[in-house]
Amino acid sequence: MLFKRLIPKIVVEKTDSLAPIIFKSILTRAFEPFRVVGDPISQVKIQQSNLVDEILLVHRNRGLFDITFPNLVLRSCEYLNTPLTVGGAVTEPSHARILFESGADKIVIGRARSNLELLESIASNYGAQALVISIDYSDDDLKFGVDKFCESEISFGYMGLAGEIALNNKGRDGYGEGVDFRLLKTLQSTTKAPIVVGCGVSSVEHIANCFRAGCDAVTLSTFLSQTDQSIKQIRSHISTLGVNIRTRN
Amino acid sequence: MIDIIGSPSSNARAVYFAFLDMGVDCKIVQDATEIHNSKKIVLPGVGAFGALSKFLHDSKLYEPLQLRIAEGAKMLGICLGMQLLAEGSEESSEYKGLGIFMNHCKKFEGADLRVPHTGWDQVSINSQHEVLRGLSSDFSAFFSHSYYFPVDINCSFGTTEYGVEFSSVLAKDNVVGVQFHPERSQSNGRKILSNFADWE
Asked: What is chain B's percent helix, strand, coil content, to nearest 5?
């Protein structure tokens, strides 16, 4: 039976200084930088040694795509035998190509409605399973109701291209007040793609709630730096709550 | 030396790093002239059946690959690379696979089934094989695919259940295929890659 997944998210941002360390990993609040954590490669190595289900590496600086990010992906891959999803700065098919060549397994694209051509290009060249479409929304976007917002997103016609849909309520990012999965049911009835949720986890119960609601995976960022439980302990704790999660390799 | 076929949409790099990390000599190849003496070949794959089939034809690798396999070179197909070992796929009916197995890949269908089949799932070993040495009879591995290879008692060495039971490990003579990604399946995947490297 397919296991539910826990996906540590490593957000990176360029440092002001030049080489040798070009990227720092950071924690965010409402998608804005909040605190520096350290070196992304160390984070990757830590998560690899934790034998996590998958790693998400996100470049925060939009519109700043150059060779340094694919280089970071390539260096990360040297240490990884865990699936790697990357994204955050991809605006052209050539960006996606170089990230796949650097070892990314999947690419996550946000703001789907204005990136339709890019989405089509990735899905047709690499297959839908390599494309994660991220719907990053705020409570304000839902002011006319969940159904209206979902209807409007569905009307852009990108749902069928996605190998996975990620749902992130930006306002909840970094605050640990629980995950918003209000869009889940409506989207699950429209798309067959697995659904990943994130933003707002600060307890094992929060994670278990997402899985109980029917989500396929949960991304974790701030929570992992603020808990006294290791990922292994978190997994076995979730498993005791009746969730089908991998507890051994 | 292991030759890894590096089609433009494959994750050949991840397979390359995995072998490198284990101290296994390997290289990424994209040209027919580079495989005419190959003893071991890996065909990784990400993307669409038709695109990979077209790449093999366009780069004139299709027939040399079939020839190397017929001459006894050991071959490992990964994910889409495994599906290419079949005769064809519902995904792109106008394109042909390598035809090592006389089967056709099918699309996952099911009202409540999330597709693609993405994430870690169980592989049940039905028959032992060199490349499965050291693995428990029910091990987990990372999958990412929308089409599957139906169970065939003649060649299915491992199976997985997702709405339907499908082949997750195939083998016939000098050829093996795995539907999951051993290069992304942590220690279980490493065992498979290292067994393939040691396979005499």
From this structure: 30, 30, 40
